[in-house]
Amino acid sequence: MNILINQEPIDVTLEREENLGEVILALRSWLGEAGLRIRSIAADGDSLDESPEGWSDRKVSETERVEVIAVTPLELAAEKIESLHDYFTAIRDSNADSAELIRDLMEESQAVSELLTDAVSPEISSQFVEAVATHDGVVDWDSGTSAVAKVARRVIPILEERFDEINDPLKVLRATIPPIRESIGELAEVSAYLQNGEDSEAMRRVVRFLELAQQLIRLGDSLRQRQFVAADAIPAGTAAEMNGFLAELSSAIAAGDTITIGDLLEYEIGPRFYEILTIYERAEIPA
What we know:
It is built from 11 helices and 5 strands; from the N terminus they run E-E-H-E-E-E-H-H-H-H-H-H-H-H-H-H. By secondary structure, it is an alpha+beta fold.
């Protein structure tokens, strides 16, 4: 069996793989070690679902050629965002004569909701699913009364921002540094606001910081993959540690535990993000 990666034949020896499901798993692991992801895969011209389970009955001995298109995680993320942007701008640009187009777009809603979960957020994906469920066949973009149009209006600028984070992370980083530095400084006052009953101002600061922190995390992925910062610039285990603190913060917010919220932000989360920010500030285009 011949295997081609991005139209180039590769010299690979299949050892214990007896069916195409096992071959897909082996290729996914091998490409993953090289920092690549499978975008599409075909066997003898037949497009394959990436799920290995669906091809466990097809024998390697019955297959002559497997063709794989592999991309970097950044390229794959950009493709997903671009697809979503095309989808929602089509909704935005629709009018009273677009009933057939809208019907076709709504038929793709399940796949779109999965992309939204992966590329944007589960929250917006859920809003889109609810909007589609109540859709009456018309998208009145100008009036803004359609639930689907409201989701489109919200998600388009988010997608454009995410696209910039992937394509020009240094530019976005430079614009993000001042507000996140200011936001980190504001965290020290959250505990006092909570203790004084000024919950709305405290939570405003928390929400603003979390939004900026999430953007910094996304930028970090782009910066490392584009080699603007070293892959090991952030110590191993930092991401897992931060996720643990953020999960603890979420639980504290849900429980109304103002002391834990203040302590986590001021002594754990804030200082660590400041260290990460300092590292990313040194990011530069490699020579």
